[in-house]
UniProtKB/TrEMBL annotation:
SUPFAM superfamilies: Chromo domain-like
Protein name per the record: Chromo domain-containing protein
Organism for this UniProt entry: Lyophyllum shimeji
Any Pfam family: SH3_Tf2-1
Domain Chromo, first and last residues per copy: 159-217
GO biological process, one term: chromatin remodeling
InterPro entries from the UniProt entry: Chromo-like_dom_sf, Chromo/chromo_shadow_dom, Chromo_domain, SH3_Tf2-1
Amino acid sequence: MNTVNASTGFSPFQLCSGFSPRVLPSFSPASTHAEGKEEQAARDLIERIHLDFLEAIDNLAAVKMVQAHYANVHRGPKITYNVGDEVLLSTVNYWREYMQEEDGHAAKFMPPFDGPFTVLKANPESSSYTLNLPEHMNIHPTFHAALLKPYQKDGVEEFFIEHIVGEWKYRQQKQYLVRWTGYGPEHVLWRPAKELEDTIALDNWERAKTAAKSGTKL
């Protein structure tokens, strides 16, 4: 009950109660002032439970994305890289951190892949590769080949929204679950509503919702 779940990041007790168990102080009759404080504390507790619940859902979504990614890549042919090769790095493992940065990234669409990055060390036997990452990324530079793809120097990597597959409210802000053209479900990402303003995908999503409520067919 009090063990932290590896997927949600919370213990069952914390998701139900909003806090980790602790020793309770001795009971004493509450004054009117104390009752006011308790009412505020109760509201704060409800809000904390709500936020923890949303974060747990977010964590589970991230875990499912990673699981789907590895399941799909292991079905494909094995690709090896050499020192000096340029590759693209999947953002599936750090998209949440990317969204929370304050350097302007959060105001843009996060692509399914980042880069290109140069391979500094290659270990094809273990399918692990060390990349020349910029310091601001602040993540370990060695990755499994499943998270990499060859970089095409003559091509321009562009990312287009295929369609929206879901929506929810996170910290009182509406977000949409976006699927990208040419990429599988392991690369779906939650994006803030403001980033999808005036997009065809959002128009189609809203029309589909309206049709579903009215019982009409598109």
